[in-house]
Amino acid sequence: MIMQKRSNDIALVAPPWWLIPSKNTGTATEHLIEDYGYNLRVQGFSSTIFSREQDYTDIYDISDVNKYSNNYVYAKVSRVDRAFFKKRNLLFYLIYILRVAIKIRRLGIKKIIVFQTFPFCFWIKIFNPRSTVLFHIGSHELSKRENYFNYGYISDSLGKRVFSKIDYVIAVSKHIQKGIKERFPMVK
Length: 188
Hints:
By secondary structure, the chain is of the alpha/beta class. It contains six helices and six strands, in the order E-H-E-E-H-H-E-H-E-H-E-H. It has helices at 28-42, 79-83, 94-107, 118-127, 156-163, 174-183; strands at 9-13, 46-52, 71-75, 111-115, 132-137, 168-171.
C-alpha cells in the first residue's frame, strides 16, 4: 500500500481491540472516533483514523455503517500483542503502536489524538517528536489512585513518564479532568 503524505491531517488513534469502521461496535468509543473524523471534516479539517486490521477476532467485515467516508489506515495486531495484554504498563500492544507511530511519521501528520490507550502517547511522541499529542480519556484510570469501579488505574510512575510526552488532555467531564490535574499537576 502506498501512503500519500497527509501532513495537514489530524491522526485519530483508536484502541487496538476495535476495528473501525465495523458492525462489531460494542462501546461508544468506536462511534466517538468516527464522529470526530466526520465532524472535523465538516469543520474544514481532514483526519485519518488509525485502527487495527481485520483479523480472526472479527465477526463482521469492515463496514462504514454511518456512511462518513473517513480516511483509514490499518495496522496489524500481532498474537504477541494480544498475549501481553497489560494495559497498565508501557509495553501495552507495543508492536501494534510502533506500526501506527511509524505510519504517522511516514505520513507527516503533526496533530495526533489518542483515544483511551494512555501508554500509546509515549511511543507516538518518541517516533513523532515534533507532533502535538492530545490524549482523550473517558474513564477514571488517571483521576484516581485506586481501582475506581473496576476501571483500573494507572500508576503514578507510569503516569509521570507518559505525561512527559503528552501536550494536552481532554477528559469527558470536569470531574475527571480535575482528578487528573490533582494527581498529575503537570497536565495541561
